[in-house]
């Protein structure tokens, strides 16, 4: 796994590595896809774009976290976010940015280090 750890305040959910079907975040290994908020990470059952819906992303705002940017890692390659889903997220005040999972992990760490209100929905890659 590639180490992508930036310097950020302690207690933040820094994504340290990804690959092999999981992630290492803030010193904890997670198998499968995950939702990463600034202060916690949880399992996420989405493994493909066809499973991505407004409902599968709902835990991002249901946790009470004030998120303004949602990075969506779509696996080994970037994919397009359906326009209706992008609009629904925008209605909640969330800007969605879709990219390959590796790029989403790196971008999350940069935004987290900048103290931005960011979350990531990351599909695991092999």
Provide a descriptive summary of the structure in words.
The chain has one domain (15-122): 3-Layer(aba) Sandwich (Hypothetical Protein Mth938, Chain: A). 24% of the residues lie in helices and 29% in strands. It is built from four helices and eight strands; from the N terminus they run E-E-E-E-E-H-H-E-H-E-H-E. The chain has helices at residues 54-57, 59-62, 83-91, 101-113, and strands spanning 15-19, 22-25, 28-31, 34-37, 40-43, 69-73, 95-99, 118-122. A hairpin with a 2-residue loop joins strand 1 and strand 2. The N and C termini lie close together (10 Å).
Q: Short summary of the structure?
A:
This protein has 126 residues and is an alpha/beta fold. 24% of the residues lie in helices and 29% in strands.
CATH overall fold name: Hypothetical Protein Mth938, Chain: A
| Domain unit count | 1
Count every helix, treating DSSP H or I runs of 4 or more residues as helices.
Answer: 4
Secondary-structure element series: EEEEEHHEHEHE
Class in CATH? Answer: Alpha Beta
Q: How many DSSP E strands?
A: 8
Taking all Cα atoms into account, the compactness measure Rg is: 13 Å
Give the low-pLDDT segments.
none
Structural class per helix/strand content? alpha/beta
Kindly report the spatial arrangement of strands forming the biggest sheet: 5-4-8-6-7
The CATH superfamily is MTH938-like
Strand content: 25-35%
């Amino acid at each position: 796994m590639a180490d992508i750890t930036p310097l950020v305040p302690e207690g933040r959910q820094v994504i340290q590595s990804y690959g092999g079907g999981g992630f290492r975040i803030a010193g904890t290994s997670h198998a499968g896809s995950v939702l990463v908020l600034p202060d916690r990470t949880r399992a996420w059952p989405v493994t493909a774009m066809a499973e991505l819906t407004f409902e599968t992303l709902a835990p991002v705002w249901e946790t009470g976290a004030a998120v303004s940017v949602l990075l969506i890692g779509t696996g080994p390659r970037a994919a397009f976010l359906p326009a209706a889903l992008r609009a629904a997220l925008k209605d909640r005040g969330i800007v969605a940015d879709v990219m390959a999972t590796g790029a989403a992990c790196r971008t999350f760490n940069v935004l987290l280090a900048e103290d931005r209100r960011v979350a990531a929905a990351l599909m695991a890659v092999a």
